[in-house]
Amino acid sequence: MKTHRHIHLIGICGTAMASLAGMLVERGFQVSGSDAAAYPPMSDFLASLGIPVAQPFAARNLQPRPDLVVVGNAISRGNVELEQVLDERIPFNSLPAVLHDEFLRGKEVLVVAGTHGKTTTTSMLSWIFEVAGMHPSFLIGGIAENFERSFQLGRGQYFILEGDEYDTAFFDKGPKFLHYFPDAVILTSVEFDHADIYKDLEAVETSFRRLVNLVPRRGRILAFDTGESITRSVARAFCPVERYGPGEQASWRAVNLCLDTERTSWSLLRGERPWAELEFELAGDYNVWNATAAAAMAGSYGIRPDVIARALASFKSVKRRLEVKAEVSGITIIDDFAHHPTAISATLNALRARYRGRRLWAILEPRSNTLRRNIFQQQLAKSLALADEVVIAAVFKSESIPEGERLDVNRVAAEIVSRGQRARVLADAAEIIRVCSPEMRPGDVVAILSNGGFGGIYESLPERLKSLRPWPLARVETRSSR
Predict the structure, then answer these.
(1) Which among 106, 224, 293, 467 is most buried, taking Cβ atoms within 10 Å?
(2) 287 and 145 in one domain?
């Protein structure tokens, strides 16, 4: 790396790629990047760092010729910049390999992995270490609001990072987290996901077993105490394994859980003994388990319970995780990254508890590689039926999914209707805004679920709602929480 002064990132607007770009800038490298489309929050984040982002992909973006190109895992053969890199024999590598070689060597590496919850848990753990004065480095797959960024190069010995099970690059189809050689691991969940690269649940479990196999004997693993998949994944660990969760045999348990309309609180037990009284502003019992995992890991590194409690009490959240984007005349618009039926259920249940008695909308863009397929079609309908009003957009880039494998959004909507809920399919963000905004009333909570930009709906919907004032007189629908 010492000879590579100019580094170009293809696919720079991915959360991890943008974070690596920032870290490279802090290390003194000249950094440029390109992407098909840039949208907040990562586009704003890169702009704040002064990193130029070229759009769209083009061979000219590689002028002047960089010393090294980092190829994002979403980039495939046929991409014009990648083809130029190969034709000109410009040196290239993957994000995880650069991260390991340049930043992880010599650090105590703590990896948070799992199908769900890893971004928030990594943010919580990083904030606890920060409040404890341990000056951690971290890399998170989102913008942690306490730091207002997704990475930090601290002077302490610990590097905390989100371990993604998705593949590494077009030339390395193994999971990213296998490059990180962790000293400790939090394993939040193991479910089938990423249907474009994993054949089945067994293949997913195999990846997590390989991660577990990298942890040295002196290390530690904290694993959620629910699900046979997690149990199988940690069964052959060489280091101590502690479980956290609701089970009576769990080493770390949350009791006296209170999900209030403004705060969440619980008591944390270690074994059978009270260990800490914890609370924060976040909604949802899944965030309690995220925080319990972070607290347990921090405690294993000698951080006192009172410091952990103080850190969690001041923890904000992560961008695009139950993020309130706007409040317009009593209508609350929520942005959430949920793109798996399990995550969608958790999100909607959390909103039910937080906004009790208010009409709940779920507006979904089927965009992830898993959700665009029909693998979870029935589970998706069940999850979305937790809302009062369900709106489903057309499958994102549906033409790239074979018809026999493609999610049938009309069948999903019909299944929701058969469960006694309102559901409809609308083509895109523009049609959703045109049709639904006149129907929204003060008191409504609108959850927009997507792992992408969703046609700018986050900005356009509030503007449209503002233009519809004053409201016609109408009864505001309410519903008791489930």
Answers:
(1) 293
(2) yes
